[in-house]
Amino acid sequence: MPEQNWLNQRFLERLERLALRWRKSFPGLIGGRNPSRFGGPGMEFLDHRHFHHGDDLRAVNWRAYLRFEKLFLKIFRIEPHAPVRLLLDVSASMQVGKPSKFDYARQLAAALSYVALVRLDAMVLVPFADGLGSVLRCVGGRHRFAPVVEFLSELRPGGRTDFLETARQFVGRFPDRGMLIVISDFLDDADPIKALQYLADFGHELVLLQLWSEQDRVPPWEGRLDLVDAESGAVLELDFDSVARDEYTRAFDAYCDALRRVALANGGRYLGLPTSLDLEEAVFGLLTTAGAVQACSS
Amino acid sequence: MFFLNLSLAQFLGLLGAGSALVVALYLLDRSRRREVVSTLQFWIAARRAPETRRRRRIQQWPSLVLQLLSLALLLAALGDLRVGQRGAQYRDHVLVLDTSAWMAARVNGHALIEQARELARAWLRRLPAGDRVMLVRADALATPATPFTTDRALLDQAIARSEPSATALRLDRALAFADHARRGSGSAGEIVLIGAGRIVPEGAGETPPLPGALRFLEVRGDPENCGLRDIVLQRTREDPSVWQVLVKVRNYGQREQVRRLALAFGGAPVGSALLRLPPDSEQEASFSIRARAAGWLEVRLLGRDALSQDDEAVLELPAVRPARVLVYTRQPELFRPLFSASPWVRAEFRSPEAYQAGAPGDVVVLDRFCPPALPQAHSIWLDPPLEGAPVAVRQSLAQASLARWRTDHPVAAGLRTRDLMLTRVRVLAPAPGDVPVAEVEAGPVILARAAGTKMLVFGFHPLATAMRYEVTLPLLIANALRWMVPEAFARQEVRALSAGTLTLELGEEEAQGVRVVGDDGRTAPFTLEQNKLELFVSTPRQVRVLTSAGERVLSLTLPEVAAGRWKPPAGIRRGLPSGRVERRASLALWPWLALASGVCLWLEALLYGRLVRASAVQRKRFAWHLLVARWRQAGGTRP
């Protein structure tokens, strides 16, 4: 899929004003934008502690020493670089509905990758279905955006979603904690809540971006239906009417609410995005409001 | 009870088709569809047990019956179902008013059309108020003046505006049109013909195919009338200034008439004849008048009669315009017999020294003489000198026999003289575009050139050879002049005829390239079949028929008075109806049927519509949730 069909130049220029934002404190090399509770070399004063052998003499508070004749060390708040990983659902269910959730997910992933590249954040794109796929590490500025587009273009949807197996493989492969953006429809027959809780317990900051098409939430059909599961191929025969549709939508909304609760309970963020929503509006409206990205002055 | 807009078969056919469609849609609505979804987990929560009955079986009979009933009621409303007898409703009539030229004839000081108007109004007054009437004005054409309407004021207005036209009544066309219009309406009434029964001779004595329910209201009165039928003027061949005039006069009445026919040209009397016309007969009178200049010829039938429009005709005569030939020669006595033989040619002889390139003339003859500047008119070069000749000379021969003529060229048309010995002849070298008219064995000796002004070049002097004594020479010169100035020799005919359909017999050679031009300069439509030209003129006007052989000026200003009398068959109704008939209209049910159809649809939606079913289920579910909530408040667990 050509790049210009995804993100036009004007949209990319607007994206350059944004930066990814995480709330948790992660250890790491300085140079990021989000403050951490970990002390270290920085600009903002955090605390004092006793001087120990080997500490940097430049951080000694000499005024306190003249007063108390004891060595105190000034501790500063660090702003570390945190690793950012983006889990992109490429299961078969992502191509159900119009417009395609898969295309929308790829555009959203490309937009977030561009934001990360511009701010020199280290982004790892990880496609998944029933396990992790091949990974792309992208870092080093906006001129590295072309490989991202190429990588996303070559992705093909297929397979069943298995969040538990995906989480297990992810934890084994990326042991250091960081920001974890999950773009998916979260429609796994097994309960994905457990897997997400597992990732959160491991220390990752979850940003759950749930995509759905209109027919996923409010099916337009009525009457006697033979429903085929896009991933498993299972067939369900049922009579469907407006009452059942309300029941369905209620169940769907309850499920989305459960996902939201998992994210918020673990200090993360959740955002539900219908594919009918314009991508630009989603990024600059909902994502900004939810705090997943923020506008930067520089 | 009957349908006004549909037959029973149409109603049943439509109902059957509609019912089949409704049943098909009903079954299709309950058919199963296959859809691919992202997951089944939420569907299971909303699952309802599928109905195990076969989908091709009708499961809700009352719903289907209500739908079909609604459809049947709607169709009945569209078909305009009525209660009562079919013949009791209001009817559509066609009033055919004769507006032919004959209706302008006056009897006792009143025109026939006035009587026709009175009859039309009287018939309208006796018609039920709800009956619709279409007024058709009938002459050579049938023209509807109003649509079917119950508006009596509009009909009165249209009747008052009906005036006699210039054409005769074509009864068959008028009745066919009226019958067609009446059949097109829903409830056919009468066709009422009001007229004097004068129709064109084609239909006289015969009964055209009559439609049913025809009523004839005859305009009474038998006007005595004589009129001009046809006036033909042709120039004589011998003297172009003499016109032969042929006038046809007809007596349309029942009594013998003695009338004087008078001709005047430019206001001066030029001829007169006393005609004794037996009843219903036609006579011809011929005159010869001399007129070189253009002018107006008036032909009058003196005396008074019922129709004055056909007693006078005025025709425009064109001036005589012979071909003007300028002959530059030193021997005019040689040429004088040649050019003075025809009255259509006026020759003028001049010496070569008096040559002027722009001298007024149609044709210039140059006798062994090459002018310093080429003439601006068509030219005939006789044995031109080598220097300055318009055509190169290939060789000179002392004697040569004329071998062949190019008879397909207009100059050599009809010439067959061969073995004519020519002395001192030059063989000409034709340029591209030149046509050899006559040839000896060595090559052409007469060439025709049609580019620009026409030119004919002789390689010898025809009056200095043996051709001088042959009949070929005057024919050759006549052909050359006709080729160069065709308009001077064109046949001229002026005719006064009546308007309407006109048929002209054309000669074989005339039928090529025919044009008909009106007096406004526009081309008029016509048909040409087997050398018969037919055109139709509805209003008096002048037209010109232009053919390759000449021009015919047709002054179609005489009214077309029908000579035939129509005898109505015994079976048709005649005279005004006895009294005003009021009919009671049948009861129209369509509003009630449409209302009933809507009620059925509303009932079906109320009882079996999805929205209603959904709201009923929602009410049940709401009651269940309320029960569970109250039970929880009481400290219990979910049942």
Shape of chain A: elongated
How many DSSP H or I helices of chain A? Answer: 10
Main beta-sheet annotation of chain B: 9 strands, mixed
Secondary structural class of chain B: alpha+beta
Oligomer: heterodimer
Fourth CATH level, the homologous superfamily of the domain at 323-487 in chain B = Class I glutamine amidotransferase (GATase) domain
CATH class of the largest domain in chain A: Alpha Beta
Distance linking N and C termini of chain B: 64 Å
From N to C, what is the helix and strand string of chain A?
HHEEEHEEHEEHHEHEHEEHEHE
Q: For the record, what is the CATH homologous superfamily label of the largest domain in chain A?
A: von Willebrand factor, type A domain
Q: Summary?
A:
The complex is a heterodimer of chains A (298) and B (639). Chain A has 298 residues and is of the alpha/beta class.
Notes on the structure:
The complex is a heterodimer of chains A (298) and B (639). Chain A is α/β, with parallel strands linked by helices and 298 residues long. Chain A has two domains: 3-24 and 82-295, von Willebrand factor, type A domain (Rossmann fold, 3-Layer(aba) Sandwich), CATH 3.40.50.410; 39-77, no CATH class. Chain A has helices at 3-6, 9-15, 62-68, 101-118, 145-153, 163-173, 192-201, 214-217, 242-265, 279-290; strands at 18-20, 39-40, 44-50, 72-77, 84-89, 123-128, 136-138, 179-184, 205-212, 223-229, 235-240, 269-274, 293-295. Chain A has a six-stranded mixed beta sheet, with helices on both faces. In chain A, strand 8 (179-184), helix 7 (192-201) and strand 9 form a beta-alpha-beta unit. Chain A is elongated. The mean pLDDT of chain A is 86. Chain B starts with a strand and ends in a 6-residue tail after the last helix. In chain B, a hairpin with a 2-residue loop joins strand 33 and strand 34. Chain B is built from eleven helices and 37 strands. The longest helix of chain B has 24 residues, at 610-633. In chain B, 23% of the residues lie in helices and 34% in strands. In chain B, helix 1 packs antiparallel against helix 3 and helix 10 (590-608) runs parallel beside helix 11. By secondary structure, chain B is an alpha+beta fold. Chain B is elongated, with a radius of gyration of 44 Å. Among the domains of chain B are: 2-85 and 591-608, no CATH class; 90-223 and 564-574, von Willebrand factor, type A domain (Rossmann fold), CATH 3.40.50; 323-487, Class I glutamine amidotransferase (GATase) domain (Rossmann fold, 3-Layer(aba) Sandwich). Classes of the chains: A alpha/beta (298), B alpha+beta (639). Chains A and B meet through strand 10, strand 11 and helix 9 of A and strand 2, helix 2 and helix 11 of B. Strand 10 (223-229) of chain A pairs parallel with strand 2 of chain B.
